[in-house]
Design a protein that fits this description.
The structure holds two protein chains of two kinds.
Chain A: H1 3-29, E1 39-45, E2 51-58, H2 62-90, H3 94-97, H4 111-127, H5 132-194, H6 199-215, E3 218-222, E4 228-232, E5 237-240, E6 243-244, E7 247-248, E8 265-266, E9 269-270, H7 284-313, E10 331-333, H8 348-351, E11 352-354, H9 367-371, H10 391-401, E12 403-405, E13 415-417, H11 418-458, H12 462-496
Helix pairs in contact in A: 1-12, 2-5, 2-6, 2-7, 2-11, 4-5, 4-10, 4-11, 5-6, 5-7, 7-11
Chain B: H1 8-35, H2 41-45, H3 49-99, H4 107-126, E1 129-130, E2 133-134, H5 153-167, H6 181-189, H7 196-202, H8 204-207, E3 216-220, E4 223-226, H9 234-249, H10 256-313, H11 317-343, H12 346-349
Antiparallel strand pairs in B: 1-2, 3-4
Helix pairs in contact in B: 1-11, 3-4, 3-10, 4-9, 6-10, 7-9, 9-10
The chains are: A alpha+beta, B mainly alpha.
């Protein structure tokens, strides 16, 4: 060992100190940057006995990152579903808008509440069948009910439209993220090969993956060359070997009865929808698809069943035994020629209306409601035209509480009274809404816990950095002392030389 | 490995998210404490929503039925008042008849007057309306139920023809005084096509436009009651026949015995009418009790329903208040913590060199 070796070591100590300080400065300045991974300066002893920073590595934790991504996907799915259900639930949120506990004010606008109002109006009409104002009350209640069903149906369509456009924008976001991912991944692969600092590129890549998992459930595989392959949670390839797949989707702008939307395709294979061989399970895209193709249509089918039930409950039958068909009465729909069967109810909720024949504002007569005969003289129940005839009104009242058959496809049982069915539909919707909301709360808390765990594992703690800074400062101070000492020794040596 | 290390980012964000959560809880509880109900009932009740709605629907229905029952009770008691008035008219007519001695000078005029006036009053009472609807019309409540057939030309002609056919002379003929008591009895109550009784009951539709079908009304869910009577009831017919007998025949110049037959036949008809009317009134009274009972029971059900709805919808005010105050404490603690954490920084404690 020589004094000059000591000087070399001192020199390398200064260089190392500077490099470590730079890493700490970087860490401190990014202490509050979300997704920043703490960097560590790796110091090793060198051949001359000093210490050198050989590399800077990120404090990474793949397992925790995957957990964050998985829970983000679940939360994205529930968020999409819950938003749609909230919109639908608003159309039946009677109780939450109730301000009074008596009278009709208590009921909001759900078909169920409107049906109850209609029933009350019929009871009032039954008590005073000769009163045209009581009859008008029934017509008004019936119009409210029809418009409530129309509103419900259009809410279903608009939720489907929103979900469709949500899918469209999710697909755009995914495609753009995949493009970004392609270039970041290339940087990492070449940086890994050349030994360049790729820490910030890796941070970016992680952040892209988290954003991606918000939209679509993914799983990732790390490759030896530093690249990462992305697959959907159902196994379809999104990114592999430097090549990103492109998601294609044709949006449907307007939803109506019988319209079904398109599915998202990757390389010609559908990754959404019940008929897809590899349907994605999570992410906003899956949530929107479920909302658009399963939940909203099912609620729509229930509304259709209610509309169909109404048309048949209030239908008029031939009173002359002449074999004429049963025809729509108080409730009808445009172009009605018969009472549709419950398996043929698609779109009825959006078309149902009050028969113009009983609506005085459209030139009709309320008395037809009491007497029958909306469909002509063969359908007159009150043949004597008596002013206090209640037989037909009582038929209608009991039709509301008598069991009818409903189509099983709406998922609410097949035999029920109309009012119970309408109540059951509200229950179904609010139950879905409640479940989605609870699930969303749960997933959000899982996300936040996973993020906290990840941040604790890979993030910056200012105190740790400051402590490290202090030891570097000490080391710097000691090194300068060493330098002064070595300098003094050289000087002493030089002074001792004869001149 | 890093369970003991907390990153500076998560240290700050933990408190922040705790604050957000507390704040949204507070806003929810504030709504609940002011309205006394859950902030978002649909979300709170979930699949109980339909049950809650059905309770509200029932409430609505029972309220509508109760209101409708009030009108029914009014009609029923109006009907009974009218029937009361009819029976008291009938009773005073019977009294007049009883005190009358046949064959006296004034008997004919009194008989005719009594009959005409009583008939007039019967028709007035039978045509009582409520809300523009005739109470005794059965379901045909839009048309005046009772008229005096004999006051119409066709009715008068029918009577004159029957009299002529039966006796062979007209009511103004001098032969009238020769009608015997037995003849008169047969004319009044016999089954001949020309008898007086056939004349009234056989052409009752000319007297009455009422429907024999009474009004039925649903008075509580699933319970229907007959809530009217009609002018085709036996009582109306008997009274009308008795009065008409007096007004048509009482004024004729009959022999004392024939006149006595008219008086006794009419009296017995009016008596029968009174008892029929009493029966009708009793039936209406029973129906009224039924309706009132239904209303009372519905009002009890309403109380129960309101309680059930309340159980579902209402929050416990004490627990909301307690939660609210503990959340406030929590939020204040979070604020405190934030400022404490700001100070908890090693840099603050390093000596300035």
């Amino acid at each position: 060992m020589s004094l000059s070796t000591a000087l070399n070591i001192i020199n390398s100590a200064f260089v190392t100190n500077a490099a470590q300080s730079a890493v700490i400065a970087n860490n401190v300045s990014n202490a509050t940057t979300t997704g920043y991974n703490r960097e560590i300066a790796n110091v090793v002893g060198n051949y001359s006995g000093g210490a050198t920073v050989v590399s800077v590595t990120r404090e990474a934790n793949t397992a925790l990152l995957e957990q964050v991504n998985a829970s983000t996907s679940q939360a994205g799915y529930q968020q999409a579903l819950s938003d749609g259900l909230t919109t639908l639930a608003n159309t039946v949120s009677d109780s939450s808008t109730a301000t009074s506990t008596s009278g009709s004010e208590v009921n909001g606008n759900s078909p169920s509440a409107m049906l109850a109002n209609l029933q009350s109006a019929l009871e009032t009409y039954d008590a005073s069948p000769s009163s045209s104002s009581a009859g008008q009350g029934v017509v008004t209640a019936a119009q409210d009910l029809a418009s409530s069903l129309n509103t419900g149906a259009s809410a279903v369509y608009s939720v489907q439209e929103q979900a469709d456009s949500g899918m469209s924008s999710a697909v755009n976001t995914i495609n753009s993220l995949l493009t970004q991912f392609t270039s970041v991944n290339a940087t990492i692969v070449s940086g890994t090969a050349s030994g360049a600092d790729i820490a910030s590129a890796e941070d970016t890549r992680d952040s892209i993956l988290t954003q991606l998992s918000q939209q679509i459930g993914i799983s990732t595989v790390s490759n030896p060359d530093g690249s990462t392959s992305i697959y959907t949670d159902s196994g379809a390839t999104l990114f592999q070997g430097g090549q990103a797949s492109t998601l294609t989707f044709t949006p449907t702008a307007t939803y109506a009865a019988g319209v079904s939307g398109n599915q998202v395709m990757v390389d010609g294979v559908a990754i959404t929808g019940s008929s897809s061989p590899m349907a994605i399970q999570s992410g906003a895209l899956a949530g929107y698809e479920n909302l658009r193709d399963v939940v909203a249509p099912q609620y729509g089918a229930q509304l259709d069943q209610i509309a169909d039930g109404l048309i048949s409950a209030f239908s008029e039958s031939d009173q002359t035994n002449g074999g004429n068909p049963t025809l729509p009465g108080l409730f009808t729909f445009s172009g009605a020629t018969s009472v549709p069967s419950n398996s043929d109810a698609t779109g009825l909720a959006s078309e149902i209306e009050v028969n113009a024949a009983v609506d005085p504002s459209q030139g009709g007569s309320v008395d037809l409601l009491r007497d029958g005969g909306i469909n002509g003289t063969n359908y007159v129940y009150n043949t004597t035209g008596a002013a206090s005839y209640t037989g037909h009104i009582e038929d209608m009242i009991s039709a509301l509480t008598t069991n009818q058959s409903f189509s099983a496809t709406a998922g609410l049982g097949t035999s029920d009274s109309l009012s119970d069915y309408a109540d059951a539909s509200v229950s179904w919707l609010q139950n879905q809404n409640q479940q989605a909301s609870n699930q969303l709360d749960y997933e959000n808390s899982v996300v936040s816990q996973a993020k906290t765990a990840l941040s604790n594992a890979t993030g910056v703690n200012l105190d740790t950095e400051l402590t490290n800074m202090l030891s570097i400062e000490n080391s710097y101070e000691t090194t300068s002392k060493l330098l002064t000492t070595a300098d003094a020794m050289f000087n002493a040596l030089i002074d001792a030389m004869p001149s | 490995m890093s369970a003991s290390i907390v990153s500076t980012l998560s240290l700050g964000s933990t408190v922040l998210s705790a604050m957000h959560q507390t704040q949204s809880e507070i806003s929810k509880l504030t709504i609940e404490s002011t309205t006394g109900q859950y902030a978002d009932l649909g979300l709170q009740l979930g699949d109980q929503s339909g049950y809650e709605l059905s309770l509200r629907d029932q409430t609505n229905l029972l309220q509508a039925l109760s209101t409708a029952n009030n009108a029914t009770v009014t009609n029923l008691s109006l009907s009974q008042t009218s029937i009361n008035s009819m029976t008291s008219t009938a009773q005073s007519a019977v009294q007049t008849l009883t005190s009358l001695s046949a064959g006296s000078n004034t008997a004919a005029a009194t008989l005719q007057n009594t009959g005409t006036n009583a008939l007039q009053e019967l028709i007035e009472d039978a045509n009582t309306t409520s809300n523009g609807q005739y109470l005794f019309g059965g379901i045909n409540s839009g048309v005046e139920p009772l008229t005096n057939y004999f006051s119409s030309t066709s009715g008068q002609t029918a009577f004159d023809t029957a009299f002529q056919n039966y006796f062979g002379f007209s009511t103004t003929s001098s032969n009238v005084s020769g009608i015997t008591s037995a003849q008169m009895q047969d004319f009044l109550t016999g089954s001949s096509a020309n008898s007086f009784s056939t004349l009234v009951s056989g052409s009752w539709t000319s007297w009455s436009s009422a429907s024999s079908t009474n009004v039925t009304t649903e008075i509580s869910p699933g319970e229907t009651a007959t809530t009217s009577t009609n002018a085709n009831d036996a009582g109306f017919q008997q009274l009308a026949e008795g009065y008409a007998m007096l007004s048509q025949l009482g004024g004729l110049s009959l022999s004392a015995s024939a006149q006595q037959t008219v008086i006794s036949t009419a009296s017995s008809l009016v008596d029968q009418g009174i008892s029929s009317m009493d029966n009708t009134e009793a039936t209406l009274g029973a129906t009224q009790t039924q309706v009132t009972d239904a209303s009372t029971s519905m009002s009890n059900q309403l109380t129960i329903l309101q309680t059930q709805i309340g159980n579902l919808d209402n929050v416990d005010p004490e627990s909301v208040a307690t939660q609210l105050s503990s959340l406030q404490t929590q939020l204040e603690t979070a604020y405190d913590l934030t400022s404490q954490l700001q100070k908890m920084n090693l840099a603050q404690y390093l000596p300035v060199s």
